Amino acid sequence: MSKTNAAKVAGELGLALQQVEATSALLDEGATVPFIARYRKERTGSLDEEQIRAVRDRLSQLAELDSRRAAIIKSLTERELLTPELEQKVNAAETMAVLEDVYLPFRPKRRTRATIAKERGLEPLALMILAQDDGTDPLAQAAAFVDAEKEVPEVEAALAGARDIIAEIINEDQDARASMRDLYEVKGVIQSKVMTGKEEAGQKFRDYFEWSEPLAQAPSHRVLAVRRGEKEEMLSLRISPPEEDAMALLSGRFVTGQGPCSEQVSLAVSDSYKRLLGPSMETEVRLSSKKRADEEAIKVFAENVRTLMMSPPLGQKAVLAIDPGFRTGCKVVCLDQQGNILANDVINIMTDKQRADALDKVQKLIAEHGIEAIAIGNGTASRETESLFRGVDLPGGIPVVLVNESGASVYSASKLARQEFPDLDVSVRGAISIGRRLMDPLAELVKIDPKSIGVGQYQHDVDQKSLKEGLEDVVISCVNAVGVELNTASAQLLSYVSGLGPSLAQGIVEHRAQNGPFASRQAILDVPRLGPKAFEQAAGFLRVRDSENPLDSSAVHPESYPIVEAMAGDLDCTVADLIKQAELRRKIELGRYANDEVGLPTLQDIIAELEKPGRDPREGFEAFAFAEGVEKLEDLEPGMKLPGIVTNVTNFGAFVDVGVHQDGLVHISELSDDFISDPRQAVKVQQQVIVTVMEVDVERRRISLSMRPAPGAPRRRPGSKPQDHAGGDRRPPRSDRKTKGKGKGRPKAAQPEASQKDKDKKQDKPFNNPFAAALGDLKLD
Asked: Are 495 and 534 in contact (CB under 8 A)?
């Protein structure tokens, strides 16, 4: 890492130079983000994981820029084109776009209209015209360049060739490209139209059949939606600023007079914009807008995954798990407190007799295996299965919990599941996953590709490499924040521990199987190929609850054990006494133990761990139940208040499961009485909420919900008083409002006929949900 790059990153991120340099050095040494954030606070100035990742990613971008810069200089040098002035421009470029602009005139290129014109000797004419001397007659000057042998048969052909050269000069002008790039970013409009003949096949994109919106205001989900429509050849897509603004910008730069030469330059400006510069800028802005949309979608997805993985665990309980179903029956498994399968069976719930037999069978399993909780997957037949078990007295008041089973089927058919349970049916594996997910969501979800968990926003449309990296960061962060029990964790869970990885994780599991449980953290050094560096990175995140050393079950790193032992020695007690007795910990004078390597941040972390060794940062588990009697879409009526679980949070709102096998949308404008710019300010995945049903479209399976205390009442803008908005402002945020003019603004949803049931209840009122387009966006995923 160069000093220049470190200073640049420090300035951009608002950090001290030494913080960036220390972080870069640690990363270069192979330290992981969680390890640096937790155990190297003195070196980084207590940077958190987000800041460390920001430093890492920005340094990586700058390294990529430097690599491209070096390649360009090498190319220019080899072709003897590099001058001191050009080298200075190359070295001064701070973005990839500017760097490529500098290099563009010198880039090896295929034959263009301009190069052909130059081959015909028309470059002097082009430069003469571009000078725009009012006394120059371009027709007279062009006559001298007419040469049949050079394929310039007439004056107009000479002028056309000269304009081609001028058009390329304009296109390759660095300042012109920078100004045009800014114009596209600021005033560009993204427009989509249905492809001819695709009206029927492209119905899921109908909100974008005739649509436009300022690119700067277009949210990521709409950008990704129209790009998908284009990819599927249902929509045509254009991004451009008003043409008059683009022409005025270029004319103001290149047209300097009013004579005949200037007229020729004006023609070249128009040609350059339409044929060269415009398409080039559109390509760039397509890439940049896609990158921004990807980053936003990945950010939303990653935050949802983090929340889901950090969901409260039930803990080590014996669980009876059910994968519900009608036709093939409900698969039932019993799991012990470590998640090992004890028994499996099938129950049916179609008839009264089958339900009675099912209850009898389940109660016997509960008694036989000491079941402490029942987990039911939330798929088909889940509400019917839940109602069956909630309707009877279960021994000991056993809780019945509906579990989000998204991704369970993916796991059950995976190679991992086949290796873990080679003799079990796919559906039985799915039931096991459901039960384990209740016990510890994190430990089970790490076995599933995060893209299959069901909390994303256009995850299949974004850059897959960036998505994978972003989600891996989240999973690693969650696993290391919670900590991993060394003697029970799966290889998949261990593979995310700082400093390990799939190979060492598998080695730990195999060593454990062959030699029994690890007696201490230090014992993992006996695992083949696990050396001191991996131990340093991993040890603090591993837990050994039955170790003789009580610190092995805490987040205190082994390198700090001597400090804790010194604290205990100075107080004439044991480490165990320090953990048990708060009055002893209050006597510790932290300043006595600080040195050049260990400062107050680490010492304060140690004391916090001694207070609650190995504490789980996740919230406590709370049971949840849907409203009784509301089990299908047809049971919903406007005005109903229902409990629900947030299943997904997107840029335009949150989706909530109210127990009818179809999530409803709470648009961002219905999440709070106050205006919010980000739904995550109000809700998170797995949050338990109370919602009001606003609209129901049975035919299209759409539900509009509200979390506001009084749905439809005026919302307050920040700092306003309630009476400021009498009359009711229910408009979406400015970026979502429909602007004047045909096809402008937010896509307008189709208005289908109401169902007969709705007609009876609403006197033929059509479904007129102002947020239907957002619901339509969900349908695209």
From this structure: no
Percentage of residues of the chain with pLDDT beyond 90? 58
pLDDT of amino acid 467: 87
User: What is the Cα–Cα distance from 91 to 2, expressed in whole angstroms?
Assistant: 13
Which residues 6+ apart lie within 8 Å of 769 measured at CB?
A: 694, 695, 697, 702, 704, 749, 775
Alpha-carbon span 544 to 614, nearest angstrom: 10
What pLDDT does 714 receive?
A: 65
Name 156's Cβ contacts closer than 8 Å, sequence gap at least 6.
none
Would you say residue 17 has pLDDT above 50?
yes
Q: Dmax of the chain from CA atoms?
A: 105
Strand order in the sheet with 330-335: 341-347, 330-335, 319-323, 373-377, 400-403
Average pLDDT over residues 751-779: 39
Looking at residue 470, the DSSP 8-state letter turns out to be H
CA dihedral 368, 371, 375, 380 (to 10 degrees): 20
The pLDDT of 671-677, averaged and rounded, is: 86
Q: 162 to each of 167, 262, 461, 581, how far by Cα in Å?
A: 9, 13, 44, 89
What is the spatial distance between Cα 622 and Cα 402, in angstroms, rounded to a whole number?
Answer: 12
Helix H segments across 255-397? 260-271, 278-309, 352-369, 382-390
Other CB atoms within a 10 A radius of the CB of residue 1 amount to 17
Strand duo 341-347 + 373-377: pairing: unpaired
Q: pLDDT digit string (tens) for 571-616? A: 999 999 999 999 999 999 998 898 878 899 999 999 999 988 878 8
State both tokens at 344: 């499996």
Local structure of 298: helix, strand or coil: helix
Q: Which residue has the higher pLDDT, 767 or 426?
A: 426
- 753 — pLDDT class (breaks 50, 70, 90): very low
DSSP string, 68-106: HHHHHHHHHHHTT---HHHHHHHHH--SHHHHHHHHGGG
Phi, psi torsion values for 517, nearest 5 degrees: -60, 150
When pLDDT is averaged across residues 56-82 and rounded to a whole number, the result is: 93
Burial class (CB in 10 A: 0-12, 13-18, 19+), 679: buried
Please spell the DSSP secondary structure of 519-531, one letter per residue.
SSSGGGGGSTT--
Task: Decide the pairing of beta strands 653-657 and 641-650.
Answer: antiparallel
The 8-class DSSP code of residue 280 comes to: H
The tokens describing 676, both together, are 């919010």
CA dihedral sign of residues 752, 758, 763, 769: negative
Task: Give the tens place of pLDDT for each residue, 471-498.
Answer: 899 999 999 999 999 999 999 999 999 9
**pTM here?**
0.79
The β-bridge relationship of strands 400-403 and 373-377 is: parallel
Residues 6+ apart with CB under 8 A from 149: none
Q: Which tokens belong to 360?
A: 């009898």
- Token digits of residue 210: 């005739």
Q: Indicate the SS3 state at residue 649.
A: strand
Q: What is the mean pLDDT of the chain?
A: 86
